[in-house]
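From the methods appendix. Each design record in this collection lists the tokenized structure first, followed by the designed amino acid sequence. Records were kept in a plain field format so they could be parsed without special tools. The example shown here is representative of the layout used throughout.

RECORD:
FOLD TOKENS (282 positions):
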């Protein structure tokens, strides 16, 4: 089907009304529309290279080693965090983020601070440091908590292994099953709807991201699923939008405007087709 348009004069301006081709469009895979206030933007980041990644490349079984469970970043990992920090500032993302959520493990916390934290901290500043100097064998100066979003560490977005025997997800001597990670990921996303922040950075782990996004990607177009679900590289960032379909915690819109002031009847022009006796003008 071809919809034809011409030209229209508005004052002294001429607007070209462009024809739109619909004949090749597949309506079953068309766009989706959601109210803005029922959406959040999330910026997903996998931690930078940790010492466990270096050892794991040599022998995959070392990923199960308790000694490497809370691995710190390597010098290359800190360089990766520095590069991502430059990117989020250059593209303006750093000024948009309302909240930074990180896994409580050292490598994710170091990445989060390195990418989204404040500038250098010096003694005597009126705010506390976000990270002290040389934290976690980092050989890095202290970072300030000034001029950066708030940070919180959340247990639900950590990696597979869970070492606290008080944690309901803990199972002795075994790695958390992938399906349990996916379930935990969905619970984490539901929890996000209890937060008021609209633009959130989440610094977490490869396994958590892959299993959670794979669960979300079921039923998507194969190309979309591939884009969403592929494994993250170290310190990779992907920005996505999530929608509150279940109405868990959506706030009222801050941008919608009711129109028609003063209040009163204001039938749309196509109401004339339904109520011709009213003679509603276009």
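DESIGN:
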């Amino acid at each position: 089907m071809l919809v034809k348009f011409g030209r229209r004069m508005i004052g002294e301006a001429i607007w070209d009304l462009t024809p739109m081709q619909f004949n090749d469009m597949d309506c079953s895979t068309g766009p989706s529309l959601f109210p803005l206030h029922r959406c959040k933007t999330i910026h997903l980041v996998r931690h930078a290279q940790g010492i466990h990644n270096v050892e794991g490349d040599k022998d995959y079984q070392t990923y199960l080693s308790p000694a490497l469970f809370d691995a710190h970043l390597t010098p290359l990992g800190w360089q990766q965090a520095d590069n991502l920090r430059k990117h989020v500032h250059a593209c303006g993302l750093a000024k948009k983020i309302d909240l930074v959520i990180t896994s409580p493990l050292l490598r994710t916390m170091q990445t989060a601070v390195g990418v989204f934290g404040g500038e250098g901290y010096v003694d005597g500043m009126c705010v506390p440091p976000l990270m002290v100097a040389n934290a976690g064998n980092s050989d890095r100066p202290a970072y300030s908590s000034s001029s950066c979003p708030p940070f919180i560490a959340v247990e639900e977005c950590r990696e597979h292994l869970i070492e606290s025997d008080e944690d309901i997800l803990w199972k002795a001597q075994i790695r958390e099953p992938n399906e349990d990670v996916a379930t935990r990921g969905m619970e984490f996303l539901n929890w996000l709807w209890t937060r008021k922040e609209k633009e959130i950075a989440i610094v977490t782990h490869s396994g958590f991201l892959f299993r959670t996004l794979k669960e979300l990607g079921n039923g998507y177009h194969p190309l979309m699923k591939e884009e969403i679900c592929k494994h993250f590289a170290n310190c990779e960032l992907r920005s996505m939008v999530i929608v509150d379909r279940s109405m868990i915690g959506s706030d009222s819109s801050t941008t919608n405007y009711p129109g028609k002031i003063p209040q009163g009847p204001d039938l749309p022009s196509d109401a004339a087709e339904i109520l011709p006796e009213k003679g509603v003008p276009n």
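APPENDIX NOTE: The longest strand covers residues 39-46.
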